[in-house]
Amino acid sequence: MGNDIERELSEKYCPRFAKIAVDKGYITVDQAKEALAEQMDDDLSNKPHRLIGRILLEKRLLTSLQIEIVLNELLKKAE
Fold this sequence. Notes:
The chain has helices at residues 3-23, 29-44, 52-58, 64-78. By secondary structure, the protein is an all-alpha fold. The protein has one domain (3-78). It is globular, with a radius of gyration of 12 Å. The model has no long low-confidence stretch (mean pLDDT 87).
């Protein structure tokens, strides 16, 4: 995905992405805060933007299947 598209998706969905992941018991609140802080640090350092799900996957805190479940939940709420 392009950096602009990832940033737009992140602004729209990522705080909710992390909350849903916590609500489902996939990650802890502290892990969600750490991922959000890492995303913000990247953005403030002008590093390439990463979605919260990508950060959590890279840290091996979420699986691809868990990310898919959270995204499906997000899309249902967006309708």
